[in-house]
User: Which sequence fits this backbone?
C-alpha cells in the first residue's frame, strides 16, 4: 500500500482525484457545513469523484494539525481573529443580487497592515483571493468561490474619517477605498463642495467605483480623481498612481489590468452653493428611485453600454421586459436591470442574461457584455 502522502485539495473531486496513485491511503474531509473523517482505510475513489465541495488532507497532516488549509486558517485567525476570518461564508449575504454560492474564506481586514498580512498568508498557501467592496457589482456562481473573499468595508483604514484640505475655490479630499461613495458624496455636499452630486446614488464604495470607473448622468469618477494609493501585490509595496496613468475609459481603468488593491483616493472638488449642491444631490436620488427597480435585489445595470446604443433600450425594443428564468427577471421598470424577484440562483441570472444577449444580437447585431464581475464555480 502506498504510504500516506501530503496532499490538500479543495473543489470538485472529479477534476483531480483520479490522478492520485492507486492504493493511496488518505483521509477525506467532506465539508458542507459538517465534517466527515475517514480513517485507516484505502478509499474507493468512485465514491467521492463527484462530491460537490470537499477538502482532502493526508492522514499525517490531519493528525498533526499541519495541513495546508489548517495552517492557513490558524494564521488568518492570528491576523484577524475568528470573527473576521470566517469559513464557508454564504455570499448571498454580501452581494446585492442576494444570489450565488459560498466562499471558503470571508476576511475583513480593518487596516492596511492587516490587509497586506492576509494577502501574504494567502499567497504563501497558494490560495486564490478576490477583493470585494460593497458587493453591488458582483455575482458569485452557485458553486461558490474556492478561495478567500477579502472585504474592504466602510471601517477599513479609519473609513469614516474623510480628510479635507485646501482653501479657496477647490478642496482636496482623501477617502478610504472602503467608504461608501454615497456617504462621501453626502459629506462633501453638506460641506458645500461640488463634483459628486451625479455619483451620489451609486451604491458601491470608492475602491469599486475607481476600479470600474463608475459613472452616472454623464459624470464619471475619472473626472474628479487626482491620485490613488494602491498595494502592488507582485512587488509587495504601496505606491501612488496619478490620474494621468489610470487609463480610464467607459467602465475601464488600469486597476482592472494589474494585481493591485486600491487603498485610498484623492479627489478634487470645487466650492459651490451648499443649498444648490444638496438640492441637486437629492434630485439625482429621486430620479434614480423613479427610474430604477430599487424594490428588488440586483447589481444595477447588468450590461455595459455598447458603442452607439444603450443596452436598456435595445433590450426593451426587443420586447424582453418581464422575461423570466427561475427567480430572475428583466425589470419591467428599466430593461437594463436583471432583478431577483425571489429565490433566484446565479444560474438563473446567467441563463437569463445569456438569453437576452442572444436575442439582442440576433435582432440588432449588438454584442452585450455583462457589467458585474462574475466569479466562482458553476
Assistant:
Amino acid at each position: 500500500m502506498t504510504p500516506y502522502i501530503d496532499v490538500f485539495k479543495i473543489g470538485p473531486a472529479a477534476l483531480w482525484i483520479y490522478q492520485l496513485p492507486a492504493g493511496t491511503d488518505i483521509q477525506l474531509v467532506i465539508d458542507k457545513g459538517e465534517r466527515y473523517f475517514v480513517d485507516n482505510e484505502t478509499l474507493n475513489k468512485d465514491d467521492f469523484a463527484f462530491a460537490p465541495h470537499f477538502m482532502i488532507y493526508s492522514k499525517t497532516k490531519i493528525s498533526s494539525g499541519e495541513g495546508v488549509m489548517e495552517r492557513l486558517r490558524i494564521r488568518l485567525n492570528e491576523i484577524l481573529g475568528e470573527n473576521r476570518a470566517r469559513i464557508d461564508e454564504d455570499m448571498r449575504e454580501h452581494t446585492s443580487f442576494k444570489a450565488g454560492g459560498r466562499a471558503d474564506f470571508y476576511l475583513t481586514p480593518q487596516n492596511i497592515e492587516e490587509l497586506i498580512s492576509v494577502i501574504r498568508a494567502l499567497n504563501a498557501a497558494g490560495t486564490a483571493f478576490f477583493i470585494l467592496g460593497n458587493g453591488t457589482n458582483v455575482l458569485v456562481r452557485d458553486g461558490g468561490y474556492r478561495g478567500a473573499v477579502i472585504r474592504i468595508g466602510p471601517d477599513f483604514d479609519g473609513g469614516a474619517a474623510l480628510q479635507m484640505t485646501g482653501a479657496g475655490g477647490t478642496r482636496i479630499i482623501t477617502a478610504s477605498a472602503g467608504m461608501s461613495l454615497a456617504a462621501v458624496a453626502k459629506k462633501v455636499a453638506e460641506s458645500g463642495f461640488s463634483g459628486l452630486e451625479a455619483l451620489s446614488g451609486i451604491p458601491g464604495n470608492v475602491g469599486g467605483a475607481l476600479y470600474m470607473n463608475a459613472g452616472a448622468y454623464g459624470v464619471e469618477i475619472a473626472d474628479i480623481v487626482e491620485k490613488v494609493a494602491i498595494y502592488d501585490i507582485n512587488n509587495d509595496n504601496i505606491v501612488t498612481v496619478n490620474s494621468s496613468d489610470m487609463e480610464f475609459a467607459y467602465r475601464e481603468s488600469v486597476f482592472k489590468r494589474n494585481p493591485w488593491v486600491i487603498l485610498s483616493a484623492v479627489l478634487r472638488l470645487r466650492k459651490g452653493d451648499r443649498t444648490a449642491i444638496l438640492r441637486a444631490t437629492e434630485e439625482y436620488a429621486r430620479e434614480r428611485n423613479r427610474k430604477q427597480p430599487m424594490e428588488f435585489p440586483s447589481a444595477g445595470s447588468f450590461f455595459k453600454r455598447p458603442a452607439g446604443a444603450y443596452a436598456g433600450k435595445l433590450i426593451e425594443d426587443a420586447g424582453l421586459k418581464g422575461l423570466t428564468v427561475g427567480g430572475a427577471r428583466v425589470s419591467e421598470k428599466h430593461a437594463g436591470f436583471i432583478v431577483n424577484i425571489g429565490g433566484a440562483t446565479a444560474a438563473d441570472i446567467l441563463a437569463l442574461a445569456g438569453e437576452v444577449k442572444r436575442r439582442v444580437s440576433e435582432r440588432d447585431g449588438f454584442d452585450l457584455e455583462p457589467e458585474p464581475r462574475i466569479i466562482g464555480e458553476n
About this structure: The radius of gyration is 23 Å. The CA atoms of residues 25 and 41 lie 6 Å apart. The first strand starts at residue 8 and ends at 10.
